[in-house]
Design brief:
By secondary structure, the protein is mostly helical. The chain contains 10 helices and 5 strands, in the order αββααβββααααααα. Residues 1-8 have low confidence and may be disordered.
């Protein structure tokens, strides 16, 4: 039992690294393994046949993505970005440099800068290895609960009490670790997205404007923030409004402003 516990915590410590913002994170899976998972998932999504061939939408998404990636010294050819026919205003990122943008998001945004905030946010998820971190957190929590269960099984406690303790730890992990870390991922991706869009010549003030549009479109009904994997719209608007002035210098330094819409 002691040997197993020691091995788990050594494994936990070895997996620590830092994101582009300097935040420490837990990474337990190889990037090659994660890239393969992302590629398989993306291929399955494309196979469903809902990839959009609409020229205007693809031109806008490709133009914005290329501007963002070049500004970040990334090779656009290393990334795969697709527009999907889906009315929901959404976008997503997968490990292995895969990004999807729904047509519903294109219908919602008011200008190219708001779409750049969306795509920059998704690029941030990929470059900060949030998918790997999320899986690593799940592995760590699962391992921790397994250890706790083994410890309790060796103690003279009522079996039902032991089960309640383990179940309670699971709930605590859900609301105390996994969901807050998901909100951390979203907040970090927001910050990286603002940084990237400003450097590429998109107005960083439009990131907060995007979430005002999203807030209006949602019409409320979101769960309490402590029970959600995402920060509330009002929280995001407040944070993004504070972030934008920090990157106005980068935005102002770009002389060849993009024209993607």
């Amino acid at each position: 039992m002691t040997r197993f516990t020691l091995l788990f915590f050594v494994y936990f410590l070895i997996g620590c690294q830092a994101t582009p913002t300097g935040r420490k994170q837990l990474i337990l899976r190889s990037e090659g393994e994660m890239a393969n998972l992302g590629a398989q998932s993306f291929a399955a999504m494309k196979k469903k046949g809902n990839v959009s061939a609409e020229p205007k939408a693809n031109k806008a998404v490709t133009c914005i993505t290329h501007r963002l990636l070049v500004a970040m010294d990334e090779k656009p050819s290393d990334w795969e970005v697709r527009v999907f026919e889906d009315k929901s205003p959404n976008a997503f990122a997968l490990p292995g440099r895969k990004i999807g943008v729904h047509t519903g998001m294109l219908d919602l945004v008011e200008n190219q800068d708001q779409l750049a905030a969306v795509i920059g946010h998704e690029i941030g998820h990929v470059l900060a290895h949030h998918g790997n971190e999320r899986i690593s957190q799940q592995l760590a929590v699962t391992g921790g609960l397994a250890i706790t269960s083994l410890v309790l099984s060796n103690q003279k406690k009522n079996r039902q009490t032991n089960q309640l303790i383990v179940a309670g730890l699971g709930i605590g992990a859900q609301f105390g670790v996994l969901l807050p870390f998901s909100r951390t991922h979203e907040t970090e991706a927001d910050e990286l997205g603002v940084r990237y869009m400003a450097k590429a010549g998109f107005d960083p003030r439009q990131a907060a404007a995007l979430w005002r549009v999203m807030q209006k479109a949602s019409g409320g009904g979101a769960p309490p923030e402590f029970m959600s994997t995402h920060p509330s719209n009002s929280t995001r608007i407040r944070r993004l409004s504070r972030l934008a002035p920090k990157f106005m210098g980068d935005f102002g330094a770009v002389k060849d402003r993009p024209s993607c819409f």
